[in-house]
Specification:
With about 650 residues, the protein is of the alpha+beta class. It is built from 18 helices and 18 strands.
Length: about 650
């Protein structure tokens, strides 16, 4: 009687053919969040010595580029014009001047190379730190977070969102700094040529910036939407890839394609609008720059022909042909960083959007744990429990007392009691109502009932995957809220219906239940679960490498490894959530014998869809809509001829 696991409603609401899509795209009025940008820059701050070197390289490049541009005027006025006037054939001064210009360009090339190398190291270091912090924090999040976010949406943080940060740190940041420094250096150089022409280019630049801000703000808004819709599409694709067999079995391909097309169209629309405006920005600025170039050439030529005095930082003089040529070259150098900065607005918006999503994950509240009772190794000395450093096979709960600093120990025996427990994943939708039960050490307690009756929810509460709204759950007489979650879960062995195997050898996957287990202990656990027979027939036996969640194994074989993983942990309490549902009847008989040995002396909670597997339970509890409606042994419930009797006889009729 498998139970579909009850989970909190995901936001936004689910649609046909898929799970949640994440927040629907909303056009923010302020696409670039300054607080997020400031927080992102905090990751770059530790690398300020290297950034200082980058700054020096940028300055050298800007100065060298500006000096080379002004040098053109010097060559024309001081070398070419005098040679033409005098008819001199001595090219050595001109050659020396050209070599000096070549040296300036070489300096600029070296500066750019060093800058690129350093920024590559800085950007990857920042990304590594972001990924480390994000993954570390993700390990602290409660099960509720993963129940309400698709795997694809979470994965998008590590792929698409971090890639936008890479662009931000490695390209946008140095490019923005370079643009600002270049503007300052070129502006000073232009003022040295002509103040009047500089004023003219500044007026034209202000007009360009106004157009840039108008177009850039619109494109940035859509780049933010693009990033969010991309995560939604990734989440859906991941969901469909995992469930492709189900899609084909139920001929759901048209509906799946329709849902994909809807999300893909949404991404296409946002990406098209973002790139349309972004692509317009460059040509608009370039064309305005060309017009400004023509205006400057006409204005400069008119001033020279009219013999108008030329005001510069060096004083009043005459506007020469060399001045005009140098200024026009500088105007190109002045427009280029402005165009680059305009283009960076889109990348900054994407990076801030990606960073905002990453920080949203990092800001998720970690799983709360106010427990202070710890699980420790213990031994008996003169009839009293004392803590031991080494593994003794005897476990105890360590209670620190804040009043006097003393410590007491309670033997871990596996006594579980639930008293008047109410629970709801969502406040308005209660799942469990006034659940009371007890499981004494060594007892086998079974839960049966229709799908959604609350069977799996009870085991989730024992593990403290969720905390109860009302009532008490006691473990060896201790309220489980007082037990540290890691220690509580270490004392519980869980075999789930959904098996997850990891890339690695079969031995590694079994050892996952107890990381310090020896090979002999892992093999003994596999034999206990009756998994040894098929494992030894694998190409490399226990050293066979599993990939793709054990895709080369049958569902039953994967489940057997999962049972062996729980067996090697040797916990005092076992939770078997439909552990044999994916195993054929013959294999189930073999596994059942192994599990019977595994369950000896342990408290066991069993959820099973085959009532034949719970007949030998000490207590069977029948749940219906979150309430226990019947309880007793198999014989007692059959004699009562209630709902269990109906389920049992109905199952036999089906068989």
């Amino acid at each position: 009687m498998s139970e579909q696991k009850r989970r909190p409603q995901r936001q936004p609401s689910q649609t046909m053919g898929g799970g949640p899509r994440g927040p629907r795209m909303m056009g923010p009025r302020q696409p670039i969040n300054k607080e997020t940008l400031k927080r992102l820059m905090a990751y770059v701050k530790p690398y300020w010595p290297r950034l200082l070197v980058v700054m020096c390289c940028i300055i050298l490049n800007a100065v060298a580029t500006a000096a080379a541009a002004t040098f053109l005027g010097t060559i024309i006025d001081d070398h070419i014009t005098p040679m033409l006037a005098s008819g001199s054939q001595d090219f050595s001064p001109l050659l020396a001047a050209i070599l000096r210009m070549a040296a300036l360009y070489l300096l600029a090339i070296v500066s750019v190379y060093v800058q690129a190398r350093i920024m590559a190291v800085v950007s990857q270091s920042v990304l590594r730190k972001v990924r480390d912090e994000m993954f570390d924090h993700m390990q602290t999040l409660p099960i509720r977070y993963f129940d309400t976010h698709t795997h694809g949406e979470v994965m998008s943080h590590y792929t698409n969102d971090t890639d936008t940060l890479r662009q931000m740190v490695s390209q946008v940041l140095p490019q923005s700094i370079s643009s600002v420094i270049t503007l300052v250096v070129v502006l000073v150089s232009m003022l040295r040529c002509s103040v009047w022409l500089t004023i003219l280019i500044i007026l034209g630049t202000m007009l360009m910036l106004k157009a840039t801000m108008k177009i850039g703000t619109g494109s940035a808004k859509y780049f933010v939407k693009q990033q969010t819709s991309l995560a939604s599409l990734n989440g859906y694709i991941e969901e469909m890839v995992n469930g492709q067999k189900v899609v084909k079995v139920f001929n759901h391909e048209p509906e799946a394609k329709e849902e994909f097309d809807q999300l893909n169209d949404e991404l296409t629309e946002n990406a098209t609008e973002a790139n349309k405006l972004g692509n317009i920005l460059g040509p608009v600025n370039n064309n305005m720059g060309h017009l400004l170039y023509v205006v400057l050439a006409i204005a400069g030529g008119a001033m020279a022909i009219a013999g108008m005095g030329n005001l510069s930082l060096t004083g009043m003089g005459t506007l020469t042909l060399g001045n005009i040529a140098a200024f026009l070259t500088l105007s190109r150098n002045f427009m280029m960083p402005i165009n680059q900065m305009a283009q960076q607005i889109n990348f900054i918006a994407m990076a801030v959007a990606g960073a905002g999503r990453i920080f949203a994950l990092m800001d998720e509240a970690p799983e709360a744990d106010a427990g202070y009772v710890r699980l420790v190794n213990a031994r008996e000395v003169n009839g009293e429990l004392v803590e031991a450093e080494e593994h003794t096979g005897l476990w105890a709960w360590k209670h620190p007392h804040s009043a006097d600093g003393s410590v007491t120990y309670t033997k871990l025996s596996g006594d579980v009691v639930m008293e008047n427990v109410d629970f709801a994943y969502e406040p308005e939708k209660p799942v469990l109502h006034d659940i009371s039960l007890y499981a004494r050490p060594g007892q086998k307690v079974a839960f049966v009932g229709a799908t959604g009756a609350g069977k799996t929810t009870i085991t989730n509460l024992i593990n403290r995957f969720y905390d109860i709204a009302d009532g008490k759950i006691r473990y060896d007489g201790i309220n489980i809220n007082k037990i540290c979650k890691n220690d509580l879960r270490r004392s519980l062995g869980v075999v789930l219906q959904d098996v997850n195997l990891f890339t690695g050898t079969v031995m590694d996957n079994i050892r996952y239940g107890k990381l310090d287990a020896t090979d002999e202990e892992c093999i003994a656990a596999a034999k206990l679960a009756n998994a040894d027979d098929f494992i030894t027939r694998l190409p490399d036996g226990y050293n066979t490498v599993l990939k793709g969640d054990g895709s080369g194994l049958s569902q039953g074989q994967r489940q057997l490894i999962s049972i062996a993983r729980a067996a090697v942990a040797d916990p005092p309490v076992m939770i078997l959530d439909e552990a044999t549902s994916s195993i054929d009847t013959r294999t189930e008989a073999l596994v059942q014998r192994g599990m019977d040995r595994l369950m000896q002396g342990r408290t066991v909670f069993v959820i099973a869809h085959r009532l034949s597997t719970v007949q030998n339970s000490d207590v069977i509890m029948v749940l219906d809509h979150g309430r226990i409606i019947e309880r007793g042994s198999h014989d007692q419930l059959i004699a009562e001829k209630g709902q269990y009797y109906q389920l049992y006889t109905g199952a036999f009729e089906l068989e």
